[in-house]
Design goal:
Layout lengths: L2 H44 L1 E2 L2 E2 H8 L1 E6 L6 E2 L5 E14 L5 E2 L2 E2 L7 H11 L4 H7 L9 E3 L9 H8 L6 E10 L7 H4 L2 E4 L2 E4 L2 H5 L1 H5 L3 E6 L3 H7 L8 E4 L3 H18 L3 E8 L5 E7 L17 H4 L9 H10 L8 E3 L2 E4 L2 E4 L8 E3 H7 L2 H11 L1 H10 L17 E2 L4 H7 L5 E2 L2 H12 L4 E2 L4 E5 L6 E3 L5 E3 L4 H16 L16 E8 L15 E9 L6 E8 L9 H25 L2 E3 L8 H10 L3 E5 L5 E4 L6 E3 L3 E6 L13 H11 L2 E6 L2 E5 L12 E7 L2
Helix pairs in contact: 3-4, 10-19, 12-14, 12-18, 13-18, 14-16
């Protein structure tokens, strides 16, 4: 083959190869194109790519989500005043590091301002000036900032603004959703408290815990979409705020009780103390407290006592039990108040029952057994009834059974009843363990003419979203253990405990109304499990009373365990320091207070005198100023305390203390003033002041004695 033909063949082969390659490439392009078309068709019809839903993700791209926090419900007192409510609180801290600055602008507290800062901070938190100043001057100079423990936490916006008003750099606050307890120590173990974790508030004790679900409500969620906002709104869920809980507590009486308890705690230092004030005809608890207690706002004192002593602790009630022994004996026909027996001691098997006066009073009547608080007399009554009948009455009065208090776990109590001596001991309140709330239930049988009522503190729950009202507690009959005649006879004996020359309750007498009581002194079992503690202070001292005794409105029980001192007063006067003023206030004031409007007293400390007067008079309060200084340093009624309109607030200025015009003042107001001025007071008459021996404007000396005349004109 010549060269020309060979070249032609090669050219033809090359053309053929190129055509083949072109066809292959074309086929590849067509396949790829087909794949793309199929893929696009699949995506168009299914809206999915690699298991991702394009429709959903596109919607999410244009959709925003916002969590809606439900507002926690409020806990109210009987008059609709908040006891616990949702709020924003603040934690105080102070920046000390000189690194906290930007250019010439500083954000730390300078050394030259630390004294002023300590003065401002100590005024508004529960820490003394020296302690604050020490914290502001730490040994470690590299510390960036300092905090102030529980005292610097849970501060209100009002307190925050007052501290900020000083204009000191370096003082800062962290905000958090929280719970406001405006009254501090206020039936704390009943109301309870909350904890906040990751901005979620949870009830930890008391009502806050028991009704946590109802108080919390349900959080919502809000969706918004720039493309299809209507569809987003359809998926949104509105937050359902928590329900509000209403209690039967009266803030005026509760506040008074807390103040009396705190004063008694400081003076007598008991290891434990309880007090309960209840409406005699309904079972409503209007004031209740215990010591140790805690401030629900600051949590100070919480570690001292977790238990609710009213519901969970049992103890031998002592001679208060004689109320029910005597009632059972009268009701069962085994009582003759005029019959005599030999007091002092009584042999039962191998053991002896002794009166507190071991030599006894000779032969006395059974009426006197109650009045003088004779153990032997009660043991004789138990013997007359017989062990089976007496045990039946113990159970009829509701002992050994929990109350229907609807406040969580309760103790049922216990009894030792196998031997004759134990059976006799129960008649005077030993060998049986009860709770304070069981005693209150049983006392209603006496106060309510034989009809025993369940005590209650929770009134109702109101759903703010639906306005639905759920009744929690109401007047409920527990039983009818005794007759009306028996109840009246027992009340008559309780009155004689106060009025009889031999009565153990003479310290509880009132000039304004007749009161009936039964005192108690119960031994405390030794920790060894056998015998009782010795010593004059190792007892549970108690008093149960009601007034007015002919037709009781209130029942009050007070008990103190192991006081460290009687402060030279004796056990009866120790308990009377709480019982007498609280019962007097309840009888004389509660009805009026409940009918009239109240206001939360403003904090006017630090204001100039004219501003403070104007601020309080604008609230409808009566203002009296002690001294002629320019600024107010203290006020007689604490800030945020609910006070009836026209109630008196005494303001003390920074100048010398001078006597105000007392004309028209109540005895209570004069007593408050006397406490402020540290004056001894002598009262003549009753009603309101119409004359005073120290003239208005006179500078006061603590050695002065104030004499006032009162009348009802």
């Amino acid at each position: 083959m010549n060269k020309k033909m060979k070249r032609t063949v090669e050219i033809e082969q090359t053309k053929t190869q190129k055509v083949s390659v072109g066809i292959v490439l074309l086929l590849c392009v067509l396949v790829v194109f087909l794949i793309f078309i199929c893929r696009f068709f699949y995506i168009a019809t299914t809206h999915k790519v690699n298991r991702h839903n394009l429709t959903t993700e596109t919607r999410q791209l244009y959709t925003s989500k916002e969590d809606l926090q439900a507002k926690r419900g409020t806990i109210y007192d009987a008059n609709g005043n908040p006891i616990a409510q949702a709020t924003t609180t603040y934690s105080l801290y102070v920046v000390l590091s000189h690194k906290a600055k930007e250019g010439n602008k500083i954000f730390y507290l300078p050394q030259s301002k630390k004294k002023e800062a300590a003065k401002v901070i100590s005024r508004y938190i529960d820490l003394p000036y020296k302690r604050v100043y020490k914290l502001l001057n730490p040994k470690n100079k590299n510390i960036y900032q300092v905090e102030f423990g529980n005292a610097g936490k849970n501060l209100t916006q009002k307190t925050k603004k007052k501290i900020e008003a000083a204009g000191l750099t370096g003082i800062s606050f962290d905000a958090q959703q929280s719970r406001l307890y405006p009254n501090g120590i206020f039936a704390s173990h009943m109301i309870g408290y909350t904890t906040t974790i990751d901005e979620t508030i949870t009830g930890t004790m008391g009502i806050e815990k028991i009704f946590d679900k109802e108080l919390s409500g349900t959080n919502g969620i809000k969706f918004s979409n720039s493309v299809n906002d209507k569809q987003a709104k359809n998926k949104s869920k509105v937050a359902q705020d928590g329900s509000d809980v209403y209690t039967t507590l009266d803030t005026q009486l509760q506040t008074s009780l807390e103040n009396l308890m705190t004063k008694a705690q400081k003076k007598y230092q008991p290891k434990q103390m309880v007090a309960i004030l209840m409406e005699a005809k309904t079972g409503k608890i209007v004031a209740v407290s215990q010591r140790p207690s805690f401030n629900a706002q600051t949590k100070v004192g919480l570690s001292e006592m977790w238990r609710n002593l009213i519901l969970n602790d049992t103890y031998e009630p002592g001679s208060v039990m004689k109320i029910f022994t005597t009632a059972a004996a009268i009701n069962s026909g085994n009582y003759n108040g005029n019959a005599y027996y030999n007091s002092g001691t009584l042999q039962i098997g191998n053991s002896r029952v002794y009166d507190w006066n071991r030599v006894g009073w000779g032969a006395i009547t059974y009426d006197q057994a109650f009045i003088r608080s004779s153990n032997v007399g009660m043991a004789m009554l138990e013997k007359a009834m017989g062990k089976s009948l007496w045990l039946k009455y113990i159970k009829k009065f509701g002992f050994l059974k929990q109350t229907d208090f609807k406040m969580g776990t309760q103790s049922s109590g216990s009894i030792a009843y196998k031997y004759g001596f134990d059976q006799a001991s129960t008649s005077y309140g030993q060998a049986i363990n009860v709770t304070p709330i069981q005693i209150m239930r049983a006392l209603t049988a006496i106060s309510n003419n034989g009809v025993e009522l369940e005590p209650y503190m929770l009134e109702k729950m109101v759903n703010p979203n639906t306005k639905k009202v759920t009744q929690i507690g109401k007047k409920t009959i527990y039983g009818r253990p005794i007759t009306k005649t028996t109840a009246k006879e027992v009340r008559n004996l309780m009155a004689q405990v106060v009025t009889d020359k031999n009565g153990t309750g003479q310290a509880y007498a009132s000039e304004d109304f007749q009161v009936g009581v039964k005192t108690g002194t119960a031994q405390i079992p030794a920790s060894s499990g056998t015998g009782y503690l010795s010593g004059d202070l190792n007892y549970v001292f108690s008093v149960a009373g009601m007034a007015p005794i002919d037709n009781p409105r209130y029942v009050l029980y007070v008990a103190m365990k192991q006081p460290q001192t009687f402060a030279g007063k004796g056990a009866t006067n120790m308990l009377a320091s709480i019982f007498n003023p609280l019962m007097s206030q309840a009888i004389g004031k509660t009805k009026t207070i409940n009918q009239e409007a109240t206001v939360a007293v403003k904090d006017v400390r630090g204001l100039n005198t004219s501003q403070a007067q104007k601020a309080l008079t604008t609230q409808g309060l009566t203002v009296s100023v002690v001294g002629q200084g320019r600024h107010i340093v203290s006020q007689s009624v604490a800030a945020e305390t609910n006070l009836v309109k026209n109630g008196r607030v005494i303001l003390v200025t920074n100048g010398p203390k001078t006597m105000p015009d007392l004309k028209g003042w109540s005895r209570k107001d004069v007593a408050t003033l006397a406490k402020i001025l540290k004056l001894k007071v002598t009262y003549y008459g009753s009603g309101y002041v119409n004359e005073q021996n120290i003239s208005e404007g006179t500078e006061i000396n603590s050695k002065d004695e104030l004499v006032v005349n009162l009348n009802n004109d």
